[in-house]
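Shift notes (night). Ran Biflaviolin synthase CYP158A2 while the centrifuge was going.
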Amino acid sequence: MTTTVTSAAVTVTDIPHLDPVPAFTVLDERGPGGVPLIQLPSGHKVAHLTRYADVHKVLTDPASGRTETNVEDGPSFLPTVMPKELLLNLDAPHHARIRGFVATDYSAAGTERLRPVIGEVVDEGIRRLRSSASPDLFTDLLDRVPVTVNAHFLGFPVEDVPYFRPSSRIVQIASHEDVPDLVQHFYRVYGYVEDLVTGVRPVVPGGLIDRFRADRDRAEPPLDDAELTGIFFGSLLGGDQNVVSVLTKSVYALLAAPALWRRLADDPAIAPRLAEELIRLIPLGAISAFPRIAGRDLETTAGVVAQGTVVYPDAFAANRDPEAFPDPLTVDPDREPAKRHLQFGYGMHHCMGAALARMEIVTVLTRLAQEFPNLALAVDPAEVPWDNGTVLRRPTSLPVRW
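Came back to this:
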């Protein structure tokens, strides 16, 4: 029995395996302020906020920070701590200093110069697809685009990709089953970035690594090697593995729901709106945010979150709040939402690579629709294999025909 979705109105629940199994346990109890509780893999019981207004409040509250959760035995979805220099672990005022340094280059205007590079990489993938006896959209195209674009953007040699990239995948899966192995892969990637920053390994002239090293005095005080390594470690992982995950799941969703693909093929100009709708609905991995500690008492629709409470602002649930997005589970490229989705975060921890990710996803959707209007999965959607991890969750193969 096929599971392919053909109805005109498609909901995300119609598409096999698209939604993850939650990485937390829902508890039948509430915290002191009446807020529902969940239990994290670390064993901590934390407040669970799911309404758009509440999640938005936490994400935009400069007093609700990340730093104190990134400690040994801290409340976490991850089996280990991460370097404190990563932007996602920094709070005010340190976050503003780093963010201000990188903001221009990661903005929509700053990444626009990569549009021709993205076009060339996608065209190369399309040629590879056309020449393949057994075309696989994931291996021939989708898995190659973000890492190649990221190499141009950051300025690391493309030849280095086989060295660090298998470890990047394992780091983002973040399995609790073999923590020593995970740590070993983590430091392989972190050490690689550190070598680029300190000059042990060569970088491509004119890339961000080269420019930021030379321009570090623009920050006050100047950025040190650890801070630069933190910036580029996040970019190396996020600009590759995270984009591959969202891009692959977006294309999979369209092909598993042929009515959606037909809509795009008939009008490729809707790609930006359709991409935004898919990004809203599809979580990156099994989590949609990292825990925070409330820096003050927060009034929420679920009750009062007291200062010092660990909170999970569930952006995945908030993006499906019917008060913010009517008929929230329907994939509607004509949606004109009154709210901006929270998939890239909000406030100071808004994903700095969001503009580049959007450009890559929209470009791929547009070009595929133009080149392969009759594109379809060559297998039943339920048979597509997946990687399942904490931060990384995506199909690992998309056999196609046209």
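The two ends are 22 Å apart (CA to CA). Residues 1-7 have pLDDT under 50 and may be disordered.
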